[in-house]
Prior knowledge:
There is one protein chain. The protein is mostly helical and 342 residues long. The chain has a single domain, classed as Farnesyl Diphosphate Synthase, CATH 1.10.600. It has 16 helices and no strands. The protein starts with 15 loop residues before the first helix and ends in a 5-residue tail after the last helix.
Amino acid sequence: MRMPKPSSQRVGPPSSELLQEAAALCCPASTVAAVQGESEEEALLARHGRTFHFAARFLPGELRPSFVTLYAFFRTLDDLVDERDPAESPQAIAGELRAWRAWFLESCRGPAPREPLGARLARLIEHYGLPTTLFLDFLEGLHWDLWPREFASFERLRAYCYRVAGTVGLALAHVLGATSPGALSAAEGLGIAMQLTNILRDVGGDLRKGRLYLPLEDLARFGLSRSHLLQLLEAGQGPDAPFRALMRYQVARAHLYYAQSLPGVWLLPPDRRLPILLAGRLYRRILHAIEQQSYDVLRARAHTTLSEKLREAMLALTLDRLWRRGEQLADPSLEVELTDEA
């Protein structure tokens, strides 16, 4: 990555215009979800991907349909596995996953298991030259989720995160026109960072579903076990000291993935940086929420407040404008680390 030149100018306070733009970005009433006649895929994005929904408002208009189609595919298949009816057998869902796999192996020819989603996805894959291996890896990750499984090591957990989220980042990078080795590495890393965040915020909910994603080697390192976590959950008294230490370690690792991947935003074409920077910063803010609630992810799911979204939107807009004006700081990592305390 080319290192930018240092700047001798100071960053002033945000203008009222910038604050208004940030407020509009975070205000649900102003999002495109309110537009009548939106597609089913757009509605799916609005219902389930609130962060991505309003971040995607800043994509160039010609790219938004492709983004929405990609999200619809990944979300539909993820919900098929993660939100399945308890009465539905894993074998039946595995059958649809196999049907999708066969469709991809046949170069997306013929009707897909779900139409018109498959037809739209096939056109997108051909237009952008998306590697079908990304979708095959994604399907493999979903198959892992069909049956309760544990991860012995972080290496195994990272492999899972790549399959269910790193692949999403890579597919989106191709659509955004960022296919250099550095850009692809950053896209994969940001997807993994977001998946790690989801895992950490959902520890309690996943345990209730019989799932545990935290690496067993990490639990052992802090003197914990699955049965101990279940005891904490059932007692309803929140985390103890060893659990907080474990979560502090996990959160620090997720922060590292953001620190390594977010600078890759500047490898995107200028008109495509803001939505990715904003989505990444908002997801990273969830880690701060976990820290602020003393790592109690057993009784409460961490989330960001409207004021936090507003601050992140304002800072993302500021960073994007600084870069567009040629206002360059000494280190690209500093740009994505700018906070409201700066």
